[in-house]
Structure formats: C-alpha cells, structure tokens
Write a structure and sequence with these properties.
heterodimer; A: 116 residues; mainly beta; 6-stranded mixed sheet; 4-stranded antiparallel sheet; 46% strand; B: 113 residues; 5-stranded antiparallel sheet; 0% helix; 56% strand; globular
Amino acid sequence: GAGVSQSPSNKVTEKGKDVELRCDPISGHTALYWYRQSLGQGLEFLIYFQGNSAPDKSGLPSDRFSAERTGGSVSTLTIQRTQQEDSAVYLCASSLARFGGVNGYTFGSGTRLTVV
Amino acid sequence: DQQVKQNSPSLSVQEGRISILNCDYTNSMFDYFLWYKKYPAEGPTFLISISSIKDKNEDGRFTVFLNKSAKHLSLHIVPSQPGDSAVYFCAALEGGSQGNLIFGKGTKLSVKP
C-alpha cells in the first residue's frame, strides 16, 4: 500500500481481555517496528522484525505481549490479559532496511487502546 | 534512564517568529539524529535528520544544529507558521547500529496567529 495501515484505529477493551492489533506495512519494506506512546511519554520501542530473521523482542514490557509477522508482511501485536497500564497509542512503522536510512521510518496512524 | 531528553513539554510562539526546540542526549555512541513531527490522531512523520559528522543541516524553514561536545541538538523553524503546531520528537540512533531509534518525550509546539 501507499502507507502503513493500522487497524483498528481505536479499541476499548475490558481489563483481563486479550486484544489483537494489526499492522500492514508499506509493500516491499522488510523492516517492521512496533512502538507505543503512553500518556505524557515518548515513543517506547517494543519489537522489531527484519525479513525472516528472529525478531528483536527486547522492548516487550512483559510476557503478556507478543507479536508475529506472517509472510514477511502483515504483523499482529497481541496483548493478553490486558491491564489498565497497557492503555496507550500503539504505533507501527516500516522501512526498507533497519533504521531506514536518512529518512527514518514511516509510521502508521496508530491504534489507541483504552483498557477499562 | 532516558537517553534522549526533551525537557520542554510545550512551547508557544507567535506566527512569523523563530521556534527553537531543544533535545539533549546522554549516549556518546549516538551518531545519527532525527526529528519527527506528529499531529493529533496521526503517526509521526519524518522532518529532518543530521549525521554526527555535521553540525548543521538545513531544509527550507527547518534547520537542525548539533553540538556534540554538549550532547545537544536543536531544531529551528523560521518563520513559524500555524500549521507547524504539532508535537515534535527528537530521536537518536547508535552508530553501526543493531539498535533502534530512541525517542524523546516530545515537545508540543503551538504557533499562534
């Protein structure tokens, strides 16, 4: 696609439920990243995928968080047993290669997750 | 501990004047810096970048200055326009990197007509 597409744009869920967030990167971009922005905070790195390599999961805050990328394209971020502190905007980005060169990453519009 | 710090959460400037957004970093291994701009309900968009081998990079109304000895960079917008009102994020990358972009908390710029 022309840009990075994320769905849903907004999600309200009850505490303890599981949620899935989807990211469709720019076609041909081999690198895909998930970040999140909590209220008043910067962008916090969560996980990175590059081609068929094992993902860099070093930013995932707990084992309730997982992500996969199927066929080197679409990615799904799953949060199990959601907690109120998981409320944030979850941003996906993609790039041609890691870091993305002088233009950095291209971000999607994000999914605003609210856990009530 | 934050490696990239934007100590001013907000800045208000009159249209036509200069906006100066500041960013400090602690990791001396960072060798590439970027500024992103974010409007509400949209993802961040790349604005301008600078390599550590330079001290200035200019693109139209936007100029980024890097002071490596002070571990400080700044984004200048001249002249400021109401459409520049957004949150600006500073980001940094470690050299030879297997790391990821590290972002600051952002500064909300308001340009008043």
